[in-house]
Amino acid sequence: MNKFEQLGLSESLLKAILDLGFENPTDVQEKAIPLLLEKDTDMVALAQTGTGKTAAFGFPVIQKIDADNRNTQALILSPTRELCLQITNELKNYSKYEKGINVVAVYGGASITEQARDIKRGAQIIVATPGRMQDMINRGLVNISQINFCILDEADEMLNMGFYEDIVNILSTTPDEKNTWLFSATMPAEVARIGKQFMKDPIEITVGAKNSGSATVSHEFYLVNARDRYEALKRLADANPDIFSVVFCRTKRDTQAVAEKLVEDGYSAAALHGDLSQAQRDGVMKSFRGRQIQMLVATDVAARGIDVDNITHVVNYQLPDEIETYNHRSGRTGRAGKLGTSIVIVTKSELRKISSIERIIKQKFEEKTIPSGIEICEIQLLHLANKIKDVEVDHEIDNYLPAINNVLEDLTKEELIKKMVSVEFNRFINYYKKTRDISNQSNSERRDRDDRDGAPRENNNGGATRYFVNIGSRDNFDWMSLKDYLKETLDLGRDDVFKVDVKEGFSFFNTDPEHTDKVMEVLNNVQLEGRRINVEISKNDGGGRRDHNGRSSGGGFGGGRSGGGRREGSFAPRREGSSGGFRSDRNSAPREGGFRSERSSAPREGGFGGRSSSRGEGSSDRAPRRSESFGDAPRPRRPRRD
Ligand code: AMP
Fold it and tell me: How far is the centre of ligand 1, averaged over its atoms, from the C-alpha of 52 (Å)?
């Protein structure tokens, strides 16, 4: 019996769950579902977005609905149109083997008469935004006087958005005997007030600590001068080739400006804010879900309810005015058990806000330094090499091979590799060798913070050894599991492996120099699922050494920051055939001479370097603008929720 069966769910729901590929219930599902199935009870569930709460209320509501009765039996209120549609889709998926259940979405910005018609046909479940629902009630287009269930989803968000009156009015037209289930990430006074006014002895369940950020999100800040904010953003993107992120700005104007600059600089970015028409917003969201956009630059209001899985980073380009909002921002990543990172680009004058946020999220931030140009080059190169290794060859190319061979026949394999990689690398290095270090220094005590991977920072003035290893997230490692694996394989102590930074096909980690021989000897003779592990000493130390203040000098997104020492000289590929890889594709590119970003929406046929095209000496600094290409080459991957 699998764990879902133990919760008491019906056959048809279990079948749908199998189709959805959910293997085990999430925490909130495990806690809420049996209670809601067994009892007719009110419930308050404190759960962050991304914890699986839609199914936590969705499965029980579907199971308890009488499908033979066409009356509306359940009302679900959610803060935004976007979320309303997502919940509706999820519920439709859950109920697909349950005959006769109709779920109708009711939200602003679409035809009210069509929605009314859908309801008239018989909608046992209505999922609505409060404003439109109130409108429908006022016009007599909906009857919720017989409902058995009312669910308030993301109640704190709804109240934040000023829906208190609407919610109170709507709830007042529902019967007293119904059950109310309230889901909220936090419990501000207004939410508690609604609970008190409209609920009877609710069972309270909490997932994770109350009011705390999700355990799957790590929080980092980067201290910069105000004038370097944008450059810092670009570097963070460049240092993290697979970034898929929401970048938050404070105002619509900043949102638009940052997105425009990113697009100009060749990144796959777009703006999402309230000055866009609904159709424009829908278009942007579609591209984002389809991953043609890697950096969605958004205001808080516009990004509410964005529920896209696998967002790797939330970037606070500017901190929100209300620090409570930080929680909602960071909740966009680290969903469904995945790890995510919430980054704050911060100036000295804003530093104290970090401590206030820490108190709210009950989690510590880690201070990181903006990666240097050299580190970025290294990461990009490794990524590119990996990409070359992994690219699937389309045999259309066979027709052209004789001609290509003709051109390249005099080159040895080594020369060929060097030249291929240089196509991208020359641009990277040309850009970054001109750039300066933009990291600011914090005088705060946070320097003594632990590293992301939990290693203590005491002493270690000497300089650690940083390694590159050809295993990464594609081998199902995250930093924690890789650290465990390395400690076990190398028989090292709890804190002997640190600064573990996992990329897709490769990773970096540090040890103290006394372990270097052992690491090289043992690890280079280990096989992982039939593949030989290859470990090499990296040219940068990933911040393993501390500066004179005892502060970690890096880590960051990518392999950490160089601490001086051994890196001079080479960004050369570590070795032929290494699975570490030079990266080149898309977004990275600061356009001024830097690597021209290849974006994910770009047609892929552009050769290994993407369509970065040559940028001749003396040519303009402008990379080709990419904005017009959103969606021009949609990738096959489809988000599940769309
Ligand atoms: P939610 O918090 O309801 O927005 O869910 C976040 C994401 O997790 C959605 O994409 C769900 O489809 C997914 N999800 C929900 N429950 C599970 C589960 N038990 N196993 C795996 N994924 C889940």
Answer: 4
Give the pLDDT of residue 585.
35
- Nearest ligand 1 atom to alpha carbon 20: 12
Q: Is the Cβ atom of 22 under 6 angstroms away from ligand 1?
A: yes
Q: Which of 274-278, 429-433, 509-513, 626-630 has the lowest mean pLDDT?
A: 626-630
Boundaries of domain holding 241: 217-372+604-632
Do 557 and 373 meet the contact criterion of CB atoms below 8 Å apart? no
**How many angstroms is it from 290 CA to the middle of ligand 1?**
18
pTM, full prediction: 0.49
Which tens digits make up the pLDDT trace of 391-419?
888 888 899 999 999 999 999 999 998 88
Asked whether residue 86 is assigned to any structural domain, the reply reads yes
In sequence order, the 6+-apart residues with CB closer than 8 A to the CB of 540 are 374, 375, 378, 466, 559, 560, 561, 562, 563, 566, 567
Residue 435 confidence (pLDDT): 73
pLDDT, position 214: 58
Given this model, what pLDDT does residue 215 score? 67
Question: Is it the case that residue 212 has pLDDT exceeding 80?
Answer: no
User: The tokens of 521 are what?
Assistant: 């000897």
Residue 347 sits in a domain of what CATH number?
Answer: 3.40.50.300
> Quick check: CB of 25 below 6 Å from ligand 1?
yes
Q: How far is the CA of 527 from the centre of ligand 1 (A)?
A: 34
| Same domain assignment for residues 156 and 278 | no
55 and 128 together in one domain: yes
- The residue among 161, 178, 206 that closes a domain is 206
Top mutation candidate among 7, 19, 26 for ligand 1, by most atoms within 8 Å of CB:
26
Q: Which of 146, 180, 206 lies at the terminal end of a domain, its last residue?
A: 206
Structural contact between residues 290 and 634, judged by C-beta atoms closer than 8 angstroms: yes
Cα separation, 86 vs 549, whole angstroms? 49
Q: Which residue, 205, 228, 291, 192, is CA-closest to 587? A: 291
Query: Counting atoms of ligand 1 from 1, which one is nearest the CA of 23?
Result: 20
Q: Which residue out of 4, 6, 22 has the highest number of ligand 1 atoms within 8 Å of its CB and is therefore the one to mutate?
A: 22
- Protein residue with its CA nearest to atom 12 in ligand 1: 52
Specify whether 250 is located in the same domain as 105: no
